[in-house]
Amino acid sequence: MIEAQDLTKRYGDKLAVDHLTFRVEPGRVTGFLGPNGAGKSTTMRLVLGLDRPAGGRATINGRPYAELAQPLRTVGALLEARAMHPGRSARNHLLFLAQTQGLPSRRVDEVLDLVGLREVAGKRTKGYSLGMGQRVGIAAAMLGDPSVLLLDEPVNGLDPEGILWVRNLIKQLAGEGRTIFVSSHLMNEMAVTADHLIVIGKGKLIADCSTREFISRSSEKSVLVRSPDANRLADLIAAEGGKALAQEPSDGQAASLSVTGLEAPRIGEIAAANRIVLHELTPQLASLEEAFMELTAGSVEYGGGETTVAGAPPAPSADAPPAASAATPPGGSQ
Amino acid sequence: MTAVSPPPPVTAAAPPAPLPARRAGFTGRLLAEWTKIRSVRSTAWTLLIFVVVSLGLTGLLTWLTLHSLNNGKNGARDSGILTDPVNFILGTGLGLGQLAICVLGALVITSEYSSGTIRASLLAVPRRYPVMLAKALVFAVLVFIIGEIVAFCSFFIGAVLVNGQTYTLHGSVAGHAVTVHRTLSVSLSQPGVLRAVFGSGLYLTVLGLFALAIGGLIRHTAGAITAVIGMVLVIFPLAGLLPDSWGAHVHAYLPTIAGQLITQDKPTAGQLLSAWQGFGVFCAWTALLLAAAIFLLQRRDA
């Protein structure tokens, strides 16, 4: 288990990590989400004892990282930046790490097999692709068969096959009861990997909940309605206090509406009461991407001043309610 | 595409089966540092340059100087080869070869910072200072072994060239023509010679650690190498120009100025420190800088 309590890191006047408190539980994949520059890597470095916090503390299985006698046997870490000498072979990189922990050298071959790099392990890492470098990093993290893993952007630079491999590995490791803490700025990647999410923006905690809860809680839900009598239905929905947005009809299909403010059952009842034929009535779950942008846009407003966060929508006009304007238009993305 | 995957069944936090447990301790750290230092080509290349430059220049410069003496070029007499041949032999090749040790000492630590290996190292040893101690120890042993071999080889190469050479020098003293016959002879059994040769290896070892400490403080390869070589070749020798007796004292106590005393078989006139005192001063400087490097390693973000 990883615990951070009131963790704070300051660079000059800028708070890179702002009083973060969270827990990463074993047995599941915890995604660590935030836009670039949100403080994800810094937080991981604080947990790993590489950086000194300005305040607060972080523990792994109840102890600060620096107090672990043979830390690689407890914690495996893949850092965002490559952490190996380009002129040293992958095998020698792993070998020296193994030697510091008193691990037998056959363990080096085992992790090389695990990441599929045995054939090239004797070559200097300067010739490795980004993806191969990531694999060496993952091998290093797995060296001590740790019960806690921190992976900073593990799918960076991997091809689709590699991404799938990392995804499955992470899930398998969590299934074995290990604590898995994975950072990413790729929301969709987290949607398929993480069971639980810790979301930060500008160093502050924004959300700490299950992935499913995160999406449903933070995002405006919409309902897709398809009907040959869409215009009449739209008026009726408006009369009931809902909001219907006509959408481009696709070829050969009835006109569709994107409805917000009313639940699907209520829309069905309205249609039935007015004898309107429905071709489709589908509750739309917002994608994690949308939920994430909505939340981080809010945190930016809360932080004041800046308005650009990793593809967030433009700043709201002064009279519009912030939540509505920050949300992606319903149905506007797939 | 569904947005969420169902959470896997949570097993009751069963930790994975432990690997064969063996306390690594400091031996493990030493082994790791040995693996690091031997597994990059820069180590072998720098040491090869050290050996070739030291031995090659010792032979070449000794031979050239003797040759010009034979041809009656009096300028060669100023080289000191007649008055102190041992110092000439040990000072020429090793004087330049020592720069390779400076480079390697700095590189051993700064390459960890430039490549990011330092993060892997500190994750493995989060108490940090054992990394620097193990690195210093492994590097010192390596430089000591190679340094002693090269120092003794340099001496024997020089001795072969110098021994038995006879010179007839013509000069005038108080208006009378004087002729001096001189046969050069050096051997380890002469007073101070064994200490000077062995001391050359010791000096190189501490010089390597001195460069390592500077590298640990500066953390950038180019900056550290420039700083070390600038000090050894320019700043410390130039301090000899400082005026008065305080200037002489400052100069005498500078790291490599003091350290080089152990490589000289005969004391020079007005020498403030003995050979071993000088070496002690050099060791003290180096220990101080290593302590500062370790102190900063503990405090700084990696």
Give a verbal description of the structure.
- The complex is a heterodimer of chains A (334) and B (302).
- Chain A is an alpha/beta fold.
- Chain A folds into 2 domains: 2-215, P-loop containing nucleotide triphosphate hydrolases (Rossmann fold, 3-Layer(aba) Sandwich), CATH 3.40.50; 222-284, 2-Layer Sandwich (Alpha-Beta Plaits), CATH 3.30.70.260.
- In chain A, 34% of the residues lie in helices and 24% in strands.
- In chain A, the strands form 3 sheets. Chain A has a 6-stranded mixed β-sheet, with helices on both faces. In chain A, strands 11-12-10-13 form a 4-stranded antiparallel β-sheet, with helices on one face.
- In chain A, strand 6, helix 5 and strand 7 form a beta-alpha-beta unit.
- Chain B is mainly alpha-helical and 302 residues long.
- Chain B contains 10 helices and 2 strands.
- Chain B has helices spanning 25-38, 41-70, 85-115, 117-124, 129-162, 193-218, 221-238, 244-252, 255-259, 275-299, and strands at residues 166-173, 176-183.
- The longest helix of chain B is centred in the middle third of the chain and has 34 residues, at 129-162.
- Chains A and B meet through helix 2, helix 5, helix 6 and helix 7 of A and helix 1, helix 3 and helix 4 of B.
